[in-house]
Each structure stands twice: as C-alpha cells, then as structure tokens.
Amino acid sequence: MRLGLKADNLLERVADWFNLAPQPLAHAFFGMMASRTLMAGERLGVFAALAEGSATVEELAARLKLSPEGTRALLEALEACDAVERKKGRYRMADRARRWLDPRSPQYVGGFLDFNYTQWEWWSHMEEAVRTGESVDIHRFAPDDPRWRAYIHAMHQMARLSAPEVASSIPLPRGARHVLDLGGAHGWFAAELCRRNRGVKATVLDLEGSVRVGRELIAQAGLSHLVTHQEGDILTSELGGPYDGVLLFQVMHHLSPAQNVALLRRVRTALTHKGTLAVLEYLREDEEKPQGAAPLIGLHYFLTSKAAAYTPAEMEGFLDDAGFRIESTRPMRHVPLQTLVIARPE
Ligand SMILES: C[S@@+](CC[C@H](N)C(=O)[O-])C[C@H]1O[C@@H](n2cnc3c(N)ncnc32)[C@H](O)[C@@H]1O
C-alpha cells in the first residue's frame, strides 16, 4: 500500500507527472492535517453525533458545545477526508465511513483514532530517537499509566477486524486443549481460536499494564471461561506448557533479532512436538527494494521499541535458528500488510 496525493483532474495529473508540485510538502502538510482532522472528529464527538442523524453546523455546534465557526471549518475538512457528506446544508456521516466511525458498528475503529493522540506525542520524540538511538520504550510505562488503556483498546478494535480470518487460518493439532498467546493483550485472537476449536482454552501472557485492560475486555465479552490472563514478561517468565499452539501476534516487531530467536527457542520447548506456532506480523518488503508504506511502520517500531519491521527472509531466519519449519505464509486481507506465518517444530 502506498501513500500519496490523488490528482483530481488532468491539470493536476500533468503537474504530478512533470514533478511541478512539491510532493514532500504535500506529504508533510496534508498528511498532518488529515490525521489531526480525523482525530478531532472522533475526540470532539462529531462522528458519534452524526452516526445518530444528520445535522446543520449550528445544530451540531450547539449539541457538542463547540463554536459554530470551528465546527463549520472542521466539518468541511472532514468532508475533504471523505468522513462526512453535505446535502442541502445538512451534514451526515459518509456511507463508506459509517462502518469504521459509527460507535455502534462492529468494525468501529474510533478508539484507534483516539489512541493517535498518544502516538502523536510519541512521534514528537522522533528526531531525538533517531539522533540518540534510544526509543520511547512504550512497554516500560507503569501499569496504571492511562496510555495502556488507549493502546490496548486500539489493538482490540484492530483485532476485531481480522480475528475471524486469522483464527480460521490456524490449524491446531487434533485434540488440542491449550494455547498460549504471548503478548496477547486483549486476548481477542485467542478467544476466537477457542470459539472455533471446541475444548481449547487459552492463556494470555503479557505485561501488567496490558493485562489489566485485556482481562477487563474478555470479562465484558463473557469469555473469561475461555481466556485467562497472566502478568509476566515473555522474555523472562516461565512459559509453562506443553501447549498445542502458541500465538505470537505483533510482538516480534517490538523485539531485537537476538530476543526473537531466544524467545522462539523457548517457545519451541513449550510446544508439543506436533504443536502449531502462529506468528502474525507486518512483514516489510525486501530491504534492498523498499516499497509502499511499510518502512514508515518500521520507523514506528524503531521509535516505540528500538526494533524494526522485519522482512520475510529475516522472519524465516529467526524461525530456522530456533528450530521451526515454516508450513505456510499467508497475507491477511482484513488488515493491510499483515502476514500470518504457520510453523512447526522441526
Ligand atoms: C502491538 S501489541 C499486540 C497485541 C496483540 N497480540 C495483537 O496482535 O493485537 C504488543 C503486545 O505485546 C506486549 N509485549 C511487548 N513486550 C512484552 C514483553 N516483554 N512481555 C510481555 N508482553 C510484551 C505488549 O504489552 C502488547 O500487549
């Protein structure tokens, strides 16, 4: 997937062709404005209000206790971002945006937009991180830091989108009973796997700040009989076992290559000999030919964990060093750039 400006007409296409428009400025300026406009739409309650019905600028401003001038400017900007539409002076949520921005939708991702305020602050440390090589280290926050809640709710909303596709692509061995979800946070993937495989229960092992929120989400969904949360550092805690399956979803990009191999070796000894290891990761393209937006995600991982988005070859190397054989590698449709790797002990 690529970032960029979309030309509206022939003149703009020609300008783009001949490199007449300053693309770096467009990325920096419009990228920032689109991001913050959508965040404001979420945080100020515009999406939640419009999900219930259309409104004029004045009605919406009065309802949300906002200034009419600011509300008008924000709504026009949200229209430019394809989030809202205007008809005869009334604003409504755009049809295509409704499934993502209506809080009642099962695909609602407004929590992720809100989490962007936290990520915005992290990104303000980018230059310092690149200069010093030190990351923000988001997993070292105290367990009661409110950023954990924003983070894990956002991950949960993303997981809801892809969990059915991911869980249906994981082949557990016959008679499987117990799965370990390392860094499983909200436990949503593990819960979906248990729901699809009768008799299977899961343990999520994660840091305390994450577990506090994850345990709450699983209890609210009435799934505590399937998924149990346990506090611990996956790099140092006893993993227990033997397990029929281990999930390692969006965790390897927070770890260095050496940490990944060491963890995978311990996972191998915690799995039964026919056990399934499932890894879900943003895998970037070959390092020599970086394409699309994946390197931006790599930079995000460097900023937040001093780690990286790994290539398929690097992933294969980690698994091979730890004694795993890759059985399948499959891109997931519901979240761009995510790949599910299924591996078994050699
Ligand atoms: C990006 S989230 C992924 C959550 C979930 N697996 C998913 O795919 O939606 C990374 C998770 O790994 C956890 N994590 C990172 N480092 C960890 C460590 N050393 N020990 C335990 N959990 C860790 C974080 O707390 C967080 O819950």
Instruction: Write out the CATH superfamily name of the largest domain.
Output: Vaccinia Virus protein VP39
Small-molecule binders:
S-adenosylmethionine
Oligomer: single chain
Quick check: average pLDDT?
Answer: 94
Distance between the termini: 34 Å
Largest sheet: 7 strands, mixed
The CATH topology of the largest domain is given as: Rossmann fold
> What's the β-strand tally?
9
How many whole angstroms does the radius of gyration measure? Answer: 22 Å
State the name of the first-level CATH class of the largest domain: Alpha Beta
Helical content stands at 40-55%
How would you describe this structure to a colleague?
Strand 6, helix 12 and strand 7 (271-282) form a beta-alpha-beta unit. Helices cover 48% and strands 17% of the residues. It has 346 residues and is of the alpha/beta class. Helix 2 crosses helix 5 (68-80), helix 9 (146-168) packs across helix 11 and helix 12 packs across helix 14. The model has no long low-confidence stretch (mean pLDDT 94). The protein has a seven-stranded mixed beta sheet, sandwiched between helices. A two-stranded antiparallel sheet has the order 1-2. The chain contains 14 helices and nine strands. The chain has helices at residues 10-17, 23-43, 46-51, 57-64, 68-80, 95-101, 110-123, 126-132, 146-168, 188-196, 208-220, 257-270, 294-305, 312-321; strands spanning 84-87, 90-93, 178-182, 201-206, 227-231, 243-249, 271-282, 324-331, 338-345. The longest helix is centred in the middle third of the chain and has 23 residues, at 146-168. It has two domains: 10-103, Arc Repressor Mutant, subunit A; 126-345, Vaccinia Virus protein VP39 (Rossmann fold, 3-Layer(aba) Sandwich). The structure holds S-adenosylmethionine (SAM). S-adenosylmethionine (SAM) binds at residues 139, 155, 159, 183-185, 206-207, 210, 233-235, 249-251, 254.
